[in-house]
Amino acid sequence: MRELWARNIAFLTGVLVIVLAMIFAIRQNPPESPATMVEETVSSSLPVVTLSKADKEKQALIAAGRGIFEMLKCMSCHSIADKGNPRYPLDRVGERRTAEEIRQWIIAPTELKDQLSDWVFKTKQTYGNQPSEDIDTLVIYLQNLEK
Amino acid sequence: MKTITSAILWVSIYLMLVLAPLLILIFGEIPPGSGFWWDFSMALGFSSMAIMSALFFLTARFRRASAPFGIDIIYYFHRYLALMVFVLIILHFLIIRISNVDALGVINPLHAPWYMTAGRASLMLFALIIITSLWRKQLHIHYDEWRMLHIGLAIGIFLLALGHIEGAGYYIDAPAKRWLWSGYTLFWLLLILYIRLIKPWKMSRQPYRVVEVRQERCHSWTLALEPKGHAGMHFEPGQFVWLTLRESPWHIKEHPFSFSSSATHQDRLELTIKELGDFTQTIKEIQIGEIAYLDGPYGSFSTDRYPEAPGFIFIAGGVGVGPIISMLRTLKDRHDNRPVWFIYANHSWEDVIFAEELQALNERLDFHLIHVLSNPSEEWDGEEGRINQDLLNKYLPTNRREQEYFICGPVPMRGAVEQALHNLHVPLKRVHAELFDLV
Fold it and tell me: How confident is residue B190, by pLDDT bands cut at 50, 70 and 90?
């Protein structure tokens, strides 16, 4: 009898946690309005990274930037077009930040220390050891991101 | 009624403890959504951490919290809850693995973020703690070594998981949530402090002296203890204690045993112990005057919990007689005149612990004793075989549905007797069983 109660309460705990976690996830991500969905559908049919008014040389730089992005495992903390860690999406970051700001957020100078956790700050600072040209290439890639 | 109210109160406190982080997430300030599956997975991981805190609390042996349920069932619950948390953590991992594998990054700890490695290590240690707990005997792990391993692994799992959450930083950025996590961590540290320092210190202040080591039948020994410099321990018959012998209370080398003595004598406590393992085989070597420490009493397996019962039916196998004889001796000392039945299963007559004393109880109690032997001699004219439905039907009184039943013995026997009683329409709420040998 008591074993049955113990098993039931343990099971109930699991069910309650799963239900509450689902409620939390739904509340975090409310169903989108039809208008937004149409817009998203259209935009999602676009390539992950598109080049706006870029010549072949720039296209090559963007491709190289993408390689650097993958090499530095940026997707552990960031996502692009729903790939990677969705907590910090980088889609259209070029519309929100200038090239210099993007560069600063990559290498995290001391001024940004207060805005980042210790670990993130230290990790970003290691990117400062990368060749400057690589960081420039990465910035170009990020500036040209669209969803 | 008081016990039920107390039980509801403690279950409510437990549910609040494990669900509080999720409720705060739901009703608190909402950070931007990151997709249903991502947030669902994070919430599962987040609440698993809170349940882990509850797992520690459950094994801290708080007598007030465990009293309504019995500490044996608390440990049983601890085991089931741990399995449930493991399932939740696996879900947390699998959802991200399936929906967003890139976010997991590389596995190689030399290149992966430290907090992701911490999460992976925590998950692996969790699998290890479950394997070593569920299959300790099959893996031939000594009980004392297992306890140390269990404590070490549990601390490792918790700290690694905490590091994983801190490093990932999700949901703990807001000050209120950071306070919540700090509170959980502090709670956990205080719990460790209590278990490892305060409780052993309290035990060390109340030592007991071994006054007799008496041989019983069937490789069993009764250890008699008297309080040294204090009043002793008040217990309910059928309860048990954790015994520490030849070690200080800080060594956490303790073993649970039921009282076999009458609860009317708190100045002389007896434990009857059968030689079954490494520790129990040393009982016969204990010298008079040696010091022992007790943590207890614990358990709800007691006639004292049912003062309105019209009578009691005890069913035991082998050394399961320990808590039963404590209840019988107590009923005798209290001159209780309610009818008592005792169905006692053993292999042979030579194995019947307390055989002579049980025969003599007829003179002091309204006592019906039925011995059942599975391997009797040719002269035996009593019941043979095992305790089954027919045998119970033969001996149980007509008002069997109103009696309180106490079963103590090997797991297969307990299961068979419970099933037989159920078939005989005995309400389950009247059937009480002591769960031992949990690990």
Answer: confident
**The B367-373 sheet, strands edge to edge:** B383-384, B367-373, B340-346, B312-317, B404-408, B431-433
Q: Residue B18 half-sphere exposure, CB side, CA atoms within 13 Å?
A: 31
Which range is least confidently modeled, A26-40, B87-101, B127-141, B325-339? Answer: A26-40
> What does the alpha-carbon distance between residue B37 and residue B99 come to, in Å, rounded to a whole number?
7
Strands (E), B192-290: 208-216, 220-227, 240-245, 255-258, 269-274
Residue B106, C-beta contacts closer than 8 angstroms, at least 6 positions apart: A73, B112
pLDDT tens, position by position, A54-83 = 567 778 888 888 888 888 888 878 888 878
Burial per residue of B328-345, b for 16 or more beta-carbon CB atoms within 10 angstroms, e otherwise: bbbbbeeebeebbbbbbb
Interface predicted TM-score (ipTM) of this complex, two decimals = 0.71
Nearest CA in chain A to B428: A1
Indicate whether B284 pLDDT > 60. Answer: yes
**B295-324 tens-digit pLDDT:** 989 888 999 999 999 999 999 998 899 999
For chain B, what's the residue count?
Answer: 439
Chain A nearest-CA distance from B105, in A, is 5
Mean pLDDT for chain B overall: 88
Report DSSP state, residue B32.
P
How high is the pLDDT of residue B71?
Answer: 78
Helix (H, G, I), strand (E, B) or coil at B398: coil
Please return the burial class of B388, using the count of CB atoms within 10 Å of its CB with bins 0-12, 13-18 and 19+: middle
Other beta carbons less than 10 A from residue B376's beta carbon: 18
For residue A20, the chain B residues in CB contact (below 8 A) are 19, 22-23, 26, 43, 47
Task: Count chain A–chain B contacts defined by CB atoms under 8 A.
Answer: 135
Structure tokens at A17: 């946690």
Q: Quick check: B83 contacting A, CB < 8 Å?
A: yes
pLDDT at B27 exceeding the cut of 60: yes
Residue B139 touches partner A, C-beta closer than 8 Å: no
CA dihedral A31, A33, A34, A39 (to 10 degrees): -100
pTM of the model: 0.71
CA dihedral B377, B382, B385, B389 (to 10 degrees): 180
Residue of A nearest to B427 (CA): A1
Return the bridge partners of B404, or none.
B312
B175-193 and B36-58 are packed helices; what angle lies between their axes, rounded to 10 degrees? Answer: 30
Angle between helices B71-99 and B36-58 (to 10 degrees): 160
Note the Cα A118 to chain centre separation in Å.
19
Residues of chain B neighbouring A126 (CB-CB closer than 8 A)? none
* Amino acid B206: pLDDT: 94
Given a cut of 50, is residue A37 above it in pLDDT? Answer: no
Q: What is the pLDDT of residue B29?
A: 67
Which DSSP letter does residue B208 get?
E
Amino acid at B115: Y
Torsion B345-B332-B394-B432 (CA) sign? negative
Residue of B nearest to A22 (CA): B40
Which of B133, B36, B125, B135 has the alpha carbon at shortest distance from B89?
B125
